[in-house]
Amino acid sequence: MANLSKWFFCFLVSITVIVAAVGREISDGEEARREADRVTNLPGQPQVRFQHYAGYVKLGPQNQRALFYWFFEAKEDASQKPLVLWLNGGPGCSSVAYGAAQELGPFLVRGNGTQLILNKYSWNKAANMLFLEAPVGVGFSYTNNSEDLYKLGDKVTAEDSHTFLINWFKRFPNFKSHDFYIAGESYAGHYVPQLAELIYERNKGATKSSYINLKGFMIGNAVINDETDSAGIVDYAWSHAIISDQLYHNIKQCDHQESVTNECVVHYRGFAEAYSDIDIYSIYTPVCLSEYSTRSSSRLVVAPRLLSKLHDLVHNLPSGYDPCTEGYAEKFFNREDVQKALHANVTKLSYPYTTCSNAIRKWNDSAETILPIIQKLLNAGLRIWIYSGDTDGRVPVTSTRYSINKMELKVNEEWRAWFHKSQVAGWVETYERGLVLATVRGAGHQVPVFAPQQSLSLFSHFLSAKTLPASSSSIGRVSKADFELTGDVLAQQEADRVIRLPGLPEVTFKQYAVMEELCFIGFFYAIENPEEKPFLICLNGGD
């Protein structure tokens, strides 16, 4: 009996040693993969002190499908900062090409895809930022089975994103205990809450290795409820004098009809035509007239569920803001040296990199409303903020307000202005169970593009669960440090330089243009000896 007990004890010790060895081998393997994902030679990258990583995370043991990510550690105190997953919408648009490279990442693509500049208001000032291209078929994310491209939809995207996170945390276990948040914009109004709900449900039966420390989410100009989204887009166009009284009345009449008549099709197309010469995603800014421009109205007609009655008449294509930088981003990520530096396109995709996917063949499921999920997760205690750039006509603030009103939540703090640097940055209202609605004044669909400082402030307040400033009293004084010519400032200065302006005569002096806060600034060097000439500020007035 003693010998049997000794044998059994030895057996248990052996099993323990084997399991520990296997676990160590897996850990060592993931550590090697993490180190292989480190980005060290990105062409044109300004010098930085933080680490960033890019590469693939496989979704299954057969290695048939993988999602591409780009991860930036926080600029300072990365070990103490939360981890935030950023998702762009579409469906089918890239979080790397949009979120990371054009909006809120530390490096912004400029110069026709040949230059990277430092983003002074990158969100990795406040958090560790993870950008994911999902589902397969988006950006560099791939599948080796073309049939998968016909099976995509909201559910597949949520499942694959959850699997990605489980496997990503194995590669980056040092971030597993961090507070985890999800953020996104546009159709990510589906992606973000759906993924949050999936994590919440899976956490109930999760093991230590599969548990995700989810704390909340934040969505901007978000598609969350078809009925109110459709009503809001029409009301916004009318209230901003983009469509006539008659067209507004005609569309409203059509929306109450059971079937779509030919006459209503004419009215809907008239609505699209009203945006033919302006950008629906930012109604007050100039449209891009470069060779890379895609006129927003052409995508407006085919955008998913633009108007509920028109949806079934037209072919679905992804929707997303289309500034000139979209073309620059595509050119940048199609460069072989960039792909090599980011460990991307390892399977040599048969199609070029695009900001919004042309490879996705079908979108099989798209919930008509996300409001029940938001209600459920509010009840579960998650922190949820919804923000809206108020010059976006595609998913306008009217749609967002109508959607939130539909939840019939009690208002805890009435509508009021919030401030950034002594200026009104937008308006905010707080509801029961902590839901916050904040607008960003003067910002279009991609809020960080148009209001980088305000969006970073909004993001930081969300992460810290602090109330947005109610007055300008919290503004600090200008210090000498604000005028020091650091590397960041010099890089931004060069990015603001005007090189090619249509119709510009050839000149020998330098000129710059920049949008700061809500002011547009044009600056011209003196024609000769600028360092010796006085500095003059010219201001125009008005009634």
Automatic annotation (TrEMBL):
Q: List the InterPro entries hit by this protein, alphabetically.
A: AB_hydrolase_fold (IPR029058), Peptidase_S10 (IPR001563), Ser_caboxypep_his_AS (IPR033124), Ser_caboxypep_ser_AS (IPR018202)
The record's subcellular locations are: Secreted
- E.C. number(s) listed in UniProt: 3.4.16.-
**Signal peptide start-end:** 1-23
Biological process terms in GO annotation: proteolysis
Q: What Pfam families does the record point to?
A: Peptidase_S10
* Principal subcellular localisation of the protein: secreted
> Which domain of life does the UniProt lineage start with?
Eukaryota
Concerning Gene3D superfamilies, the annotation shows: 3.40.50.11320, 6.10.250.940, alpha/beta hydrolase (3.40.50.1820)
The family classification in the record reads: Belongs to the peptidase S10 family.
> What's the protein called, per UniProt?
Carboxypeptidase
In its UniProt entry, the species of origin is given as Populus alba (White poplar)
